[in-house]
Amino acid sequence: MRSLYTIGGPLRWELRTQPSKVFKRYKFHGQPSHILSSKSTLLPSKPARTRFAPSPTGYLHLGSLRTALYNYLLAKATGGQFLVRIEDTDQTRIVSDAESKLYEDLKWAGLDWDEGPSIGGDFGPYKQSQRLPTYNQHASQLLDSGRAYRCFCSPAELDAIKAQNIKEGTSIGYNKTCSHIPEDVSTRRAAAGEPHCVRLRCEHEKPAPPFHDMVYGRYKTPFVPEDFILIKRDGYPTYHFANVIDDHLMQITHVIRGAEWLVSTPRHVMLYDAFGWEPPEFAHVGLLVDSNRQKLSKRLHDIGISSYREKGYLPVALLNYVALLGWSPLRTGQKKITETMDLETIISKFHLRFTRGDIRINDKLAFIQNYYLKRILAQPEYPETIQQVSNVILPNLEKAIGEVEKGRSDNPLLGPIIVPARPAEEDSNLVGKDYLRKMFEVDMKSFVDAESHVWRNANLIWEIPEESYVQALDIEMEQNTVDNFWVKHPDAAAPEGGNRPISALQDPDIWDMFDSLGRKPSKVVDLFHATVQEITDEAWTKESLEKKMKPLIMSIYSDREEHGKDRERGRRQVWGWHALRWIMVAGNVGPALIPSMELLGKAETMRRMSVAKRAALRWEQDEMKKFKDNSS
Ligand code: GLU
């Protein structure tokens, strides 16, 4: 707790210049950026060389994408270079396709690197397993200077030392047995092929030197470091050794990485010291945690970047979202911070003030995704951009449809795929490409992810069983207590209040404007049927559908009994939209109706009208039966 109040590191100066009211805990622990004044102090003045150094032991996930992004941003914001380096020194944990997937995911996200595997660069190779001679040469350098020594202890001996430490409750780690072996003996034993590792010689009882971290300020470990391993018995370097040598040789100026590496950094600083090198600047960004403050894990959370890809998230949205997990643009003046930013904008606003402490992931992604879709729709170059977006999303929609289709026979709410959605014969897709594209465009504004989009638009893909119509009608009539339907005379002036509810009780004269359809939804269907029937296939466009149908929609009323103390009973209100939603999609929630009708086409619309009519008649018969049963 105390540490939350500690003012240290980069925030110190700026905080002191602020009025006292800013000295609140959240100002230190939360987002420090808005209390900082000028951007010039927040970026290095020289071009930064940064790197993303993944180990191919797993796939890119939210946390590692964020690390890559911050490094990328710093390089781009300062006119520097962003490198990718593969840290594959732990050969036992390599996942075979991890490396290729990492490249694929980074490219998808648009984080192109200036140097790295496959493209090369002046400081290659960029894969650690191809740099073993470099590490050995540097290990020899430390052996020669006496800063390192060979350790011939076997794994069994090391286990025994560990057990002894545990027994004695000490944490000194390796007991330095081999540090006393004379150099010539050590060289001879190594030359004779005796297995060994190389360890750094650390000074007894002296903790590692402190260093400055851009997020955490001055960091000093209380632990006395053990003589840690530089080159393992298998000849591969440890992560620490290779990482430091490469960062130095590749002239990395800034290392931005997850806070889990903070505890390793003292060892790195010791290595820089042993070589007499200047360490880079470090920034350890907070760990991503869920709402229960649990560290995000592959096992518990669906955080793989490919799964975001498959859900249909746009790279621009995902990057924007990830950027905000521990960073935000500076506030200028009193203006509210705009959080929706494309990559270019983030680069232009980038600075090195990160949030300290764990970062809880939030649910802004859906909002951000939706923002970009809407923005794309509003662009003048609309058709091409839409095309680009749908190219990203359509394959994911297809996949999601496939998933629903697999379990469809067990789902009483879905019939077979409707005729207009079916693909041409030679096409192996479930839904025609052209149809899918148009469907996406109808409701693109509400797209968040492929799966939920398919469910939202299920009515445009699958038939709706008659049973669903009956049930929906039942709910409408019973739960919403619809009493009677009315159709307003076509020549009658709009009742006062236009299409707002009017009270039939208040002004009985108004009744003259309406003809009663009774409690008979089938009659409402007939009216729609007659109107729609007149529209020819050629005139089947959104515009003419709207023109023809609007007057009818606005003339269908229902009396409904409203519950609640303050409501009048017997209010009459426009029911036309309800009616049409019930006729077209059994009352289900989904995209706008008229564009949906345009997409479905006349034949499918008329087919739905017949299903609705049958369902209405069934419902009316049931009503009649109930009435008779009650009165006998
Ligand atoms: N190879 C480490 C990892 O997998 C890199 C840590 C660092 O950036 O130094 O995350």
UniProtKB/TrEMBL annotation:
This is Glutamate--tRNA ligase, mitochondrial. Keywords: Aminoacyl-tRNA synthetase, ATP-binding, Ligase, Nucleotide-binding, Protein biosynthesis. Belongs to the class-I aminoacyl-tRNA synthetase family. Glutamate--tRNA ligase type 1 subfamily. It is found in: Mitochondrion. InterPro entries: aa-tRNA-synth_I_codon-bd_sub2 (IPR020751), aa_tRNA-synth_I_cd-bd_sf (IPR008925), Glu-tRNA-ligase_bac/mito (IPR004527), Glu/Gln-tRNA-synth (IPR000924), Glu/Gln-tRNA-synth_Ib_cat-dom (IPR020058), GluQ/Sye (IPR049940), GluRS_core (IPR033910), Rossmann-like_a/b/a_fold (IPR014729). The keyword Magnesium does not apply. It is an enzyme of class 6 (ligase). GO terms for biological process: glutamyl-tRNA aminoacylation. GO terms for cellular component: mitochondrion. One of its GO terms (molecular function) is glutamate-tRNA ligase activity. The lineage of its organism: Eukaryota, Fungi, Dikarya, Ascomycota, Pezizomycotina. Residues 49-351 form the Glutamyl/glutaminyl-tRNA synthetase class Ib catalytic domain. Its main location: mitochondrion. It comes from Pseudomassariella vexata. Its EC number is 6.1.1.17. It holds the Pfam family tRNA-synt_1c.
